[in-house]
Amino acid sequence: MPKSVDLLIEKGNILLELFRQTGKSNKQLELAKKSLQQASLLAPNLWKSYFTLGLVEWTLGHQRAAIEQHLLQQILTLMILFYQIWLP
């Protein structure tokens, strides 16, 4: 996984937390969303970006998109567990 993916996810987390603490601007959430979407494009098999993106979508009031991101995260987690158990 490229370091840039970790940085994009961390940026998304920081912007989400900043919004939670200040609650002033949806711009922070939109920037977090863009960062996390980039991370998921660069590393589509990494669950972390989908998890946080779901939190951002929920906070923005996009419940359907949040649920979709959560489901993607769950599917990826199950796939990882399956491969670890069945294909050691």
How would you describe this structure to a colleague?
By secondary structure, the chain is mainly alpha-helical. It has a single domain, classed as Serine Threonine Protein Phosphatase 5, Tetratricopeptide repeat, CATH 1.25.40.10. Helix content is 85%, strand content 0%. It has 4 helices and no strands. Helix 1 runs parallel beside helix 3 and helix 2 packs antiparallel against helix 3. The longest helix is centred in the last third of the chain and has 24 residues. The protein is elongated and about 50 Å long. The mean pLDDT is 88.
Would you kindly provide a brief summary of this structure?
The protein is an all-alpha fold. 85% of the residues lie in helices and 0% in strands. The protein has a single domain, classed as Tetratricopeptide repeat domain (Serine Threonine Protein Phosphatase 5, Tetratricopeptide repeat).
For this entry, give a set of tags.
about 90 residues; mainly alpha; Serine Threonine Protein Phosphatase 5, Tetratricopeptide repeat; 4 helices; about 85% helix; elongated
The CATH topology is Serine Threonine Protein Phosphatase 5, Tetratricopeptide repeat
- Overall geometry: elongated
Structural class call reads mainly alpha
Radius of gyration: 14 Å
DSSP, total strands: 0
Helix-strand blueprint:
Layout: H1 3-22, H2 26-42, H3 47-60, H4 63-86
